[in-house]
Structure formats: C-alpha cells, structure tokens
Amino acid sequence: MKSKSLLGAIILIIVGIVFGAVLVSGFGLVRPGFADIKLGASMPPVDLNADATSFSKAFIEVAKDVTPEVVQITVVAKTDNPRGNFFFNPFQEMPKEEEGSGSGIIITSDGYIVTNNHVVNKATSVKVGLSDNRTFVAKVIGTDPLTDIAVIKINAHDLPVAYLGDSDSLKVGQWVMAIGNPLGFTSTVTAGIVSALGRGSLNLINNNENRYGVEDFIQTDAVINPGNSGGALVDLSGAVIGVNAAIATPTGSYIGYGFAIPISLVKSVTKQLIAYGKITRGYIGVQINPVDDATAKAIGLDKPHGVIIQDLVPGGAASKEDIKPGDVILKIDDRPINQANELQSYVATKSAGAVVDLTIYRNGKVLDRKVTLKERAEDSKTEAVSDNDESGNENELKSSSVKLDNVGMSVKNLSKQDRTDFKISEGIMIDDVTQYGEAMNQGLGKGLVITEADRQPVKDVNQFTKIIAAKKGSAVLLKVKDKEGNSRFIGLEVPE
C-alpha cells in the first residue's frame, strides 16, 4: 500500500514538472525577467574604420554648426493670379495676396540675410524665423532679378554668421549638403554631390522680361524642394558654396536635380545691394554663342572652344574698341571661356567702369583687347551695328531659287519687299530646309536671310552656290539675319 502511494506521488511530481515546463515554454504564461531580455546580435555587422567614422562625423558637424545660420522666411506677396477655393462665391472678392515661404542665409551678425529674389519679389510683408524660435519682421534692402539674389535685414545682433566659401574651386563629384526649410519642414538637411558645374540655358532667370539674366548654376543631386529657395549649399567644411535656387522638375517637386547660384557671384551682388540698394553691373555689349565643331572648322580654329560674337550692342563697351562680329572670345582676364554663361557670370561680378582683358581669335590670329565695362541703359536695344538699310542702290534681282542637296536647303534671291522688310540691300533668303539635313541641324530655317558666306557679302544665289562648292569637304561660316534685325554667325558643314 505504501509502495503504491509512493509510486503515485512520484507520478504526480513528474506530471507537475512536465506540465510546468509546458506552461513556461509552450504557452508563454511565464515571462522572462526584464534584465534577462537580450535583443538583436551582440555586435554590429561592420566595424567602421577611422576614415568612415570621420566621414560620417563631417556631415554631423556641418549639420549642427550650419543649421543655425539658415533661417526660414515667410512672405505675403501680391499675386496676379489669385486662387479661389472650390466653393467659389461670385460676390466674394478674390484674394490679391498670398503667403509663401523660403529660406535665407545670415551673412552678417547684425542681421543682413541673403535669399532669392523670387522669394521676396512683390512682398508686402517679410518675416524671418530663427533656429532659436525667435521671429523678426524683415526689410527688403535690395533685389537683383538678373541673378535671382536679394538681401533682407532684421533688427538683431550677435547672430551666427555663415562662412562664405569659394565656388570657383568646386569639383564635380564633391560631396555637398543642402540646408533649408523645404515644404514647411524647418531646418532640413539633405546630402548629395555636385553633379555638374556652369549649368546654363535653363531659362530659369533668362526670359522675356530678363533677357540679360545670368545663369551659371551649380547642379546637385542633394534633395531640394519648394521652400529650399534661398537656403545654403555647403561643402563638408561647412563653407557655403551656393544659394539654392531651383529644381528641374515637371511636377513641382524634387525628381533628381537641384540648382544653386555660385557663392562667388552671390558675394559680388550682395555687397552692392547692401552698399547701394541696387546693382551697377558692367556689360561688354555683345551677343555671343558657343563655338561648335562646324563653326570651328569654318573659321580655322583647331578645336571648338571660345564663344563667337554674333553682334555688338550699339553704344556698348565692345563697340568702342577694336572688336567685331565674328571674333571669338577665348579668354577673359586669362580665364578660358567656352560657354556664353561663363562669360556672363564672370562679367556679372564686375561693376561698370571695371576694365577686363579679352583674348580673341580673328582670321587666324590671337589678339588681346582691353574693354572698359559700361552700365547697360535700361532702354538699350540689342541689334546689329551693320547691315544698315541701303535700299534703292541697285535694281531688283530676278527671283530665282537653287536647291543645295549636300547641305539640305534651298535659297532664293531677295525681292524688293524682302530687302525692305529686312532693311538690307543684298543677301539671299533660305527658302526651305531638308528635315535632319546639315542646315536644319545647325539651326537654319526658312525665312532667314544669309548676308555673308566665308566672310564675303552675299549678292545672289549664283555667288553663294560657288562659295558652297568651293567648301566641299570642309565648312563655311554664314552670317544670317532674321526679321527682328538679329544677326548671328553659324558654321555649316559642307559634305563632299
């Protein structure tokens, strides 16, 4: 009897142990102690070396030190296109102002701030928010629409001041950070690289109102969105090397590339705006285009480089010196020039009265010329200084047309009405161009008048045909004119 009781006790103990184990492991009714919980692996998968750690710290330090130097700007501005709401009330007056925001960079300890012109343009009120949550009313000191730069001022002292670096030493591939207030998110930092330099012809500033806009942007893939305008693009030393200005996008938001105004240009503009409230910028007074391969061959350059002068502005600085249409500007102040915006950007840093040295190419020779920059009169018109109307000097040529298959265009003699319309006495008109032919590829089109070929005045189609025939296997330099009076030089390849 005792043995049965002992056996039963042993069985109960075993069952209890098993049941307890099941309860603990199977049903999770008993939790481990807080101190006993170990989450994740015991070591990181990669042991960062000193270089990688230092690289990461550079971003951290720049973000910490530069963010207080970038402010948020809120503006109320006049609008030409007021927006109503969905429930439109025809008896309710539509708003004539709207609110917008952007960024700015503190450039003096007593409250001068640089931003974009388009941020404060037409503003009726401007407020600045600092990183320490203080808010100030700001005054617009001066604006420059041609560079999209503006300076505003707040009544404050002992502010953190940004270090303005050297954008001229930037390299493609260099790491940069964009700091600003995109989409209303204050003090936002993004990172990327410089993806291109000297980016122009974006028509962000140059438009019908601003024909002389300076576009020489730093392109970056650091994320820039609406609200970043006027913020800082900095290198990994924390130096501001650009003012963020625009993005390339069909949607209005970031899709890959942003653009910043080089700080070398910004410094020149802001100094004048602070000192005078306006810009007294010097101009050379030339219309220019880059030299392509066909033009280089036509004028005897060993390779495509420089910018060719299409026309001179009457009364401009260049018109007072020995500088002519058809000259190629190779350098300015010993700086090589290969794009129009490179020349414009450099000249934009100079004031009226400054003297610049031009290295030009003309008829196989390299020449040096000094030009004293002049201030551009607001009502100056860019037009040719030659090709004056000499109508009536000779009898009207018979209308005839010649098709030049090798260059892909047809030309015809000018009628009397053509000479009147274009205010010229001689030349020939392009009557048609072949799709994808040499002429079309070089931007020639129907209705343009060819006034010169191979630096010779063109009188009729017979003379022009002979010039083209003599240039087979080479290229010919043409001077063409449109009805608005604009002239330009174009290099045209002439196949065998």
Question: Would you write up a description of this structure?
Answer:
The protein is α+β, with helices and mostly antiparallel strands and 496 residues long. It has 3 domains: 198 residues, Thrombin, subunit H (Beta Barrel), CATH 2.40.10.120; 94 residues, PDZ domain (Pdz3 Domain), CATH 2.30.42.10; 94 residues, Pdz3 Domain. The chain is 19% helix and 33% strand. The strands form 5 sheets. Strands 21, 22, 23, 24, 25, 26 and 27 form a 7-stranded antiparallel beta sheet that branches. A hairpin with a 2-residue loop joins strand 18 and strand 19. The longest helix has 25 residues. The termini are far apart. About 6% of the residues have low confidence.
In brief:
By secondary structure, the protein is an alpha+beta fold. The protein contains 9 helices and 27 strands. It folds into 3 domains: 63-80 and 97-276, Thrombin, subunit H (Beta Barrel), CATH 2.40.10; 282-375, PDZ domain (Pdz3 Domain, Roll), CATH 2.30.42; 401-494, PDZ domain (Pdz3 Domain).
